[in-house]
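Summary for the steering committee. One of the milestones for this cycle was to obtain a three-dimensional model of the protein with zinc ion bound, which we needed before selecting residues for the alanine scan. The sequence and ligand used are listed below.
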Amino acid sequence: MSPNNSCKLSLFTWMRVESDGQKNVLPVCPIHLSPKVRFGNFGTGIIVTCHETKNHLVRLCDRQEFETEQEQARAKLDSDP
Ligand SMILES: [Zn+2]
């Protein structure tokens, strides 16, 4: 993993990933630094789980916080050459 490809913010470590020709910025597991995470709706929030070993919880957070931080991460990662 190249260091330019990820950044650590207050809620998550984010990584720039490309799948199906689409670039996206997704949270990664802080233990495994793995992009094998799933996230989904959980009540009014978002639950992020890691599928690297078993399924473990990465973080449960507010949807607004998730989206705000994803935007920050996107801006930060996209500004890297
Ligand atoms: Zn993990």
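Key point for the committee: The chain has one domain: 3-79.
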